[in-house]
Structure to design on (413 residues):
């Protein structure tokens, strides 16, 4: 039944299609590029002898049909996180499928395993946020003291983000408040340590800034995926606006309170 | 070269390790597979080192970004083939120090502060850097593999 047949029957075609859609969704949700998801899905379809497979992918959706539109499926992919471990696992799976070593049963089991790879545990994420903020504050030309302030802010920001994740707060609110929190921690700390606050603030904000989304959006344009590129760019701009609102508000309050104008 | 005094080399080495550590942190946040983590850090460090060198030799930030992204992407391709992992894993993490995160932030910040001139100039330079990075990546990923192309 699960042997790889040259002419799969209707039941099997459906299963293959579901599998390929799930694999594509896993890739797209976890940060793979549009054209790469397309490529992987086509390779899988060819390897499982699913004929007339056509797929159209956007940053937030997958549309595919197979067998002269006998099967067609649409998947909405509204949530995007970045989990490169899952991307690498599905990539490995597609490599094995293309090499011809896997039956559909095995492939389905392996995909289910790939989807369940967990994020690193909370403590590791906190330490990563701390050291990331420290390093980027230093890279942007901050002093060691600015780096330390950024590290504290990075720790605060990543614990707050973990809390938001648990409470399932909406994305825009999350970003505005995190940016405020970062500024709120950095300003007095840098004042105490007697160093400039801007490097620390920007370094810590790297946890939020959509630099990758922006660059990858332009990469989509270069690839010819204009719609996906536009979606990503608008997303990046909205995130940037959220951050600027959060930071701007705190800076405004600070200058009202102290009479010192910053930035 | 008289430009490379001991102090300068010291800064460059420090910057390399800072960028590598920063990349490593974000690779962990992005849940990279553990065996690939050190290579992600290496890619990030190399990219930033080339960028700093280019700036030192008098390039502006756009040119320096282009000069840095080419060896960076080449390295990601080599690593992807050697370690049998998708290029995305190394590229997404390794490019982190080069990506214009601060530029986007400043653009939005000045925009909201109603400082239109600064918002525009920051926006344009941010856009240039992003375009240059994307072009560099596309150029290097477009080079066909010399052997066994299916």
């Amino acid at each position: 039944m699960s042997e790889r047949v040259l002419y799969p029957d209707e039941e099997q075609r459906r299963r293959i299609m579901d599998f390929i859609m799930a694999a594509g969704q896993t890739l797209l949700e976890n940060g793979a590029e549009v054209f790469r998801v397309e490529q992987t899905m086509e390779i899988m379809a060819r390897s499982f002898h699913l004929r007339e497979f056509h797929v159209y992918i956007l940053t937030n959706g997958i549309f595919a049909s197979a067998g002269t539109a006998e099967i067609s499926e649409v998947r909405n992919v509204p949530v995007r996180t970045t989990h490169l471990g899952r991307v690498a696992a599905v990539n490995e799976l597609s490599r094995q499928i293309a090499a011809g070593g896997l039956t559909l049963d095995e492939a389905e089991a392996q995909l289910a395993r790939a989807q369940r790879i967990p994020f690193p545990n909370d403590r590791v994420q906190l330490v990563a946020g701390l050291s990331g903020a420290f390093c980027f504050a230093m890279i942007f030309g901050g002093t060691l003291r600015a780096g330390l302030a950024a590290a504290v802010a990075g720790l605060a920001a990543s614990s707050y983000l973990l809390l938001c994740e648990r409470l399932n707060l909406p994305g825009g609110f999350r970003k505005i408040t995190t940016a405020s929190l970062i500024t709120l921690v950095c300003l007095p700390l840098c004042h105490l340590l007697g160093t400039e606050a801007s490097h620390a603030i920007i370094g810590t904000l790297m946890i939020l800034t959509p630099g990758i989304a922006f660059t990858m959006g332009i990469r989509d344009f270069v690839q010819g995926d204009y719609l996906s590129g536009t979606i990503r760019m608008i997303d990046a701009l909205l995130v940037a606006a959220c951050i600027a609102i959060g930071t701007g508000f705190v800076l405004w309050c600070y200058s009202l309170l102290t009479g010192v104008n910053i930035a | 070269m008289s430009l490379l005094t001991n102090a300068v080399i010291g800064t460059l080495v420090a910057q390399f390790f800072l960028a590598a550590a920063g990349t490593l942190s974000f690779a962990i946040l992005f849940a990279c597979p553990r065996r690939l983590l050190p290579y992600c850090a290496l890619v990030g460090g190399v990219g930033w080192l080339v960028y700093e060198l280019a700036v030192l030799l008098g390039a502006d930030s756009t040119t320096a970004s282009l000069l840095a992204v080419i060896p960076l992407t080449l390295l990601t391709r080599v690593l992807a083939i050697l370690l049998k992992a998708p290029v995305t894993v190394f590229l997404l993490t390794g490019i982190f120090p080069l990506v214009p995160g601060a530029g986007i932030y400043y653009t939005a910040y000045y925009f909201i502060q109603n400082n239109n001139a600064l918002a525009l100039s920051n926006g344009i330079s941010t856009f240039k850097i992003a375009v240059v990075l994307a072009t560099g990546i596309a150029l290097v990923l477009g080079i066909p593999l010399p052997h066994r192309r299916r």
